Every structure is written in structure tokens, then in C-alpha cells.
Amino acid sequence: MNSVSVLFSVLLFLVANISNKQSSSETVTFPMYSDEVQIVSSVLKNDSTKLVSTTDGDPLFFTRDVFTEACETGICYPIQLTLFWDYAGSFLGFSVPDNKPLTKAGHKEFSELDYFQLFTLLNHPDSKIAKYTKKDLVKVNREKHEVTDAESGATVNVANETLVRGAAFTCLTLWNIVNQHTENLVPENFGRTTPDSNSSENMDTKLSGLKNLSASELALLMKQLHQAKLLRKLKTQMQLVNQLDELSALHCLLISNYLNREKYLYPEAYAVLKANKNIADCFSAMIHF
Description:
Layout: H1 3-23, E1 37-41, E2 50-54, E3 59-68, E4 79-86, E5 91-95, H2 112-122, H3 134-142, E6 157-158, E7 161-162, H4 168-179, H5 203-208, H6 215-227, H7 234-241, H8 249-260, H9 267-275, H10 277-287
Antiparallel strand pairs: 1-2, 2-3, 3-4, 4-5, 6-7
């Protein structure tokens, strides 16, 4: 084989490999959204946050892969999971790799109840845990004549909030990441503008047509309702939950999260949320139970 033939063969090999790489796209799935998406990375330095959008460019939510230590002893397994925020910058959920479950004292894997307890804490931006450090958590239990750190099995109670038994440091670490990262979750950091959530459209009209709202519009509307203290009203809560059967899993999770942040969720609204299959499926997909 002459040099020209060799060169031609090499070029064919390179072209074939390039074509294969271009045609093979990574499949990304999310607990609350299964359709095809496009992902935009943050333009900020040292920030791994990404904006997930539909293939048409409509924003869905923010995502960030987390790999961090919960304690300084080196005994704990690292925390590895993906965190999600809605388009308004509020906690949306998490996704735990099925081969990397969260662990607590004695390297015991989180139970389904533990994950639910963690989710509830992360969905509480006004938690009193904000005032505590890891040393504070140790001090709290020492005052109760218990020995506690990230490896202990003791339950830590902070201002009437119970952290996951044996995983207090994990709870604190993740809560800080979730609730201290919101300043970076603005559309401008991803080359986008924020839809107008304060348009002149009547609020009752918006509330009666949730299925016509995109995920970003719904997130901004829910934040607006929360800030206006309208989510405290039974009428508003029922207007929202009575439409769940017509909405996507992402929309249902958004509504559920905002309502569960309220100081009082009416039993009628809670019953509808609890019975919603989309919300239950989202949570199961997050933790692979």
C-alpha cells in the first residue's frame, strides 16, 4: 500500500470516528421530566449549575451535580447526588444515583423515610438549621448527654425540627448548598431574560388555566403567590390542587413544593396532594425505591 492509500485510510478512520461521536448523544433523564431536553451551562466561573430547557428553548429548571464531604473525619462516605431548583430559584428536588445511596451512622443506607425527611428539610428555606454549624449540632446533643457527630446514631433536634437520625451533618451540608446557592440561579447567568410574572393578566385567570403555563411561568407565579401570601388561603390551595390531574409531573411537583412550604396546608388540599400519582412517582424516581 502506497503512502497515498495509507493517508486516505487514516482519513476515512478519523471521519468515521468523528461521525460516530457526533451521532451518539448522551441521554439525560430526570425524575420529574422525561422528554428530550437541552442543557445550558452557567457562564459563571467555578459554577457547575446548568439550566435545563425544552428542545424549543423553554426553561424548565436548574440542575447541579454535587460531590462533597459531610464530615471532616474521613470516615463518612461522600455525598453524591444531583440537586434541582425551579426557574424561580426554589428547591425542586434531588436525584440519588442507584449505586451511590446516601448513608448515615455506621454506613447504613438511607431508608425511604429518611429520604422523605431530608426532602422535607431541604424544601424548608426558613428552617432554623440556618443558624447552626456542625459544632453547634454536636453541642446540642452533648447538652442532652448524648454523643453525636456524623458517625453517631443519635437524633438531632433543632428548634423542633428533627434531622435524619445519624445523618445530621449530611442534612446541614445539603441544606446549605440548596439555600445558599440561589443567588446564582438567575436567567442572566445563562444568557436569558426572566418572563414577566407581574403581567396585567387577572390572577384568577392564571390560576384557572395552569395547564397553559410553561414550567418557568408556573414557578414564577407560585413564587408571586407565596410572596403575596395568597398560598395561605384555602381557596387558592384548592384552585391549585384541583387541577393536578391535568398537569405534567413537573407542574405537580412545583405546586406540591410551594404548598408544603406554607405554615398551614389545609387537610383538603393535603389529601389531594397525597393522592396524586405524579408526585409519588417523582419522589420514587428521585431515590430509586
